Amino acid sequence: MVRRTELPKYTVPSLSVEDGRTIAAILQQRLNALNDLALTLKHIHWNVTGPHFIAVHEMIDPQVDAVRAMVDQIAERIATLGVAPVGTPGALVQDRSWDDYSIGRAGAIEHLGALDEVYIGVVTDHREAAAATEDLDTVTNDLLVGHLHELELFHWFVRAHLENAGGEISSAGAEGEQASAEAAGAAAQDPETV
């Protein structure tokens, strides 16, 4: 059995095996986050309710497909760097630094309020990973920047549902998924409160 801390036997030309391992470790965290995001999006797709059901239900599936494609690209980049990507549920849960998505069956706007928080975390961490790879490996950096384009677009789709005509986000200022879901839900009931 190969241990995750061992140096790879090879990496891509012009990188040291140490740099390959460093980049692969950064990518492994992104792999975990994007696998988690794909599962969270699918969970929302199945559990969304209310008058905005169909709009959100149908908006989510293309995001799931795109995020799954990102997962595959990252896993293949890790393998290209000479490291074995780890995509098992147990490893994801063991290595993640965030809590599991906490909203069950709920209204579309509540889910979108919580999903806003999820995307903030994913995009922020993806930007940090892109910055960390900028000087190490342009190919990996380019991959992450490309993902950011889509992730930020999907985040905008979510926020468009939470935004009032004045540009304010109904869940702004709330901390955590539950509070964001509650704030978005309350604002949907009384749009004047946003």
Automatic annotation (TrEMBL):
Xref: Pfam families: Ferritin (PF00210)
Domain of life, source organism: Bacteria
Residue stretches of biased makeup (Low complexity): 169-188
Chain intervals for the UniProt region annotation (Disordered): 169-194
Alphabetized Gene3D superfamilies for the sequence: 1.20.1260.10
InterPro entries linked to this entry: DPS_DNA-bd, DPS_DNA-bd_CS, Ferritin-like, Ferritin-like_SF, Ferritin_DPS_dom
Every Ferritin/DPS domain range: 25-164
Molecular function terms from GO: ferric iron binding; oxidoreductase activity, acting on metal ions
Family: Belongs to the Dps family.
Protein name from the UniProt record: DNA starvation/stationary phase protection protein
Species name: Cellulomonas pakistanensis
